[in-house]
Amino acid sequence: MLFRSIGTDSDLRCWDGRHCRVFSSADGLCGGRIHILLEDRRQQLWVGCSGGVHRWTGERFEYFDTSNGTEEKYAHTVTSILEDSDGCLWFGTGSTFNNNCRWDGERLWSFPHQDGLIDARVQAMLEDRDGYIWIGTWCGVCRGDRASIAVFTDTDGLPCNGVMSVLQDRQ
Q1: Which element (helix H / strand E) includes 33?
Q2: What does pTM read for this prediction?
Q3: What is the DSSP letter of 132?
Q4: Which of 28, 21, 26, 29 is nearest to 3 (CA)?
Q5: Minimal CA–CA distance to 76: which of 20, 35, 131, 18?
Q6: pLDDT in tens, 111-128
Q7: SS3 for 82?
């Protein structure tokens, strides 16, 4: 099955080669704008949207509570999802609130911008061949490993600070 967001902001369409199925709030989606889709190595579909993160169960979408035990639900815009080489999922938000987090399958860890990110509004994430996590934000790009985070901005040669996507080339 190929899942795609086609021509709309709040529903998801699945084309099986012959038929198109439309998924919406009736199927468990939050009804907000869909920003990112990711199929993880366990073949689970994750949907990042303006209402948070949803996971396809095979029958419907379930809200993935990333509140990490706090009383406030994770209802901020999820703009990026990354599965790293360890199988952990990273959720980046377009929010100025520090709601960016990493899930290892059992526990949720937050990575606030006070820990070295230049900005809390994460737009894109990538793990490169060397294991560095690159995080694009509205204020520059960060490259992190388990020990430190390096920040790059227009003063380091970027044409502008707003980084909306990150891609590693073949070299």
Answers
A1: none
A2: 0.84
A3: P
A4: 21
A5: 35
A6: 766 677 888 888 999 999
A7: strand
